[in-house]
Amino acid sequence: MATTRFVALDALRGLILALMILVNTPGSWSAVYSPLLHAKWHGFTFADLVFPGFLFVVGAAMFFALKNQQWGAASIQKVLRRTLLMFVLGLGLNFLWTPDLSQMRLMGVLQRIALCYGVAALLVLALKPFFTGAQQQYGMPLLSALLLGFYWGLLQLGTEPYSLSGNIAGVVDRAVLGEHRLYQGFGMPFDPEGLLSTLGAVVNVLLGYWVAGELSKRQPKAGMLWLLAVGVLMLVLAQFTALFWPVNKALWTGSYVLQSTGLLLWLLALMVWLVDIRCYRAICEPLRVYGSNPLFIYILSWCWTVLLSKVLVWQVAEGASGNVDISAYQWLYQQLQTVLADKPASLLFALLHVGLFWLIAYGLYRRQIFIKI
Q1: Contact present, 241 and 258 (Cβ < 8 Å)
Q2: Residue 341 forms part of a structural domain
Q3: pLDDT band at 282 (very low <50, low <70, confident <90, very high)
Q4: Number of domains in the chain
Q5: Assigned domain for 355 exists
């Protein structure tokens, strides 16, 4: 039977990228609507759906990229090269933001995507011979459960497994990477894209791979119903797991993996209904365009933010305070503040950036330029 390629998966990739830019580019971090802020520690917000969504669509794309590949030197080298390239690009973005090598953060969003892709792709290639027939349907969920169980066991080695100061993931990162090279936004050195918590994030990629494979065997209506049913199951499991393993993005806990994936499956089911069943292609096409160069657009958005925040800076008179520095990023937000309250102005600032990068993605798409990273 020919493989069914769901257009909704391509649209979901574009939607996730648009949401990532929306969440990452407010006019001011002090003027953001609460759903667009990540949970401070335990908990879940709308913003917490975005990063696992990106990893999920990486896994879905991986299904089609690795469909005809087997474990072997050529395939392994290809995976490792791409992993290394993404990781190095992530380091480059960190350097642009903090061009002091002694203080530069080592981990980050692109580095996590790189590690998750590399580990997941190697696992898929290694286990392909064993995942045939019925094993293909149940093998990946079983592997995911084993990885999450192993990660849960490792977390129990911490003095306070789920606290900011006592979790083992932070201990490992501080010992291996160094406190000065970790994210500092929690009030103490702790990296939400750290080494140990990558184990949980790998599962989001594996589940994306699994879902794409299962959808490829189904017609749209059957695929939508399957997504709804599996989404319910994952959300129920998330609520049960949260009783002993709190939902926590920074630690990337198992309950967080289940909750984010369950919600993503419901969102994907909605998009399958709209795009692949009802054929509302007018909804889908702008999102497909947005998702045609996802990693390149993400990198470009980061470079643009650095340009506005760090490079285009000048001094303005501030009354008795003398001259103060102002960046182009601040100045643009201030112009919106002249006509809107702080939070609406901050949201509009982010939406304008979503639109800007859609125009860039559209220009590349029209010229059939697809930048593979």
Answers
A1: yes
A2: no
A3: confident
A4: 1
A5: no
Supply the range of the domain harboring residue 138: 7-292
Structure tokens at 237: 């499991």
Question: Does 304 fall in a domain?
Answer: no
> What is the per-residue pLDDT for 284?
84
Name the pLDDT band for 138 (thresholds 50, 70, 90). confident
Residue 171: name the closest of 182, 244, 199, 185 by CA.
182
Q: Is 370 exposed, middle or buried (0-12, 13-18, 19+ CB in 10 A)?
A: exposed
312 contacts 260 by C-beta, under 8 angstroms: no
Q: Confirm if 254 and 148 have CB atoms less than 8 A apart.
A: yes
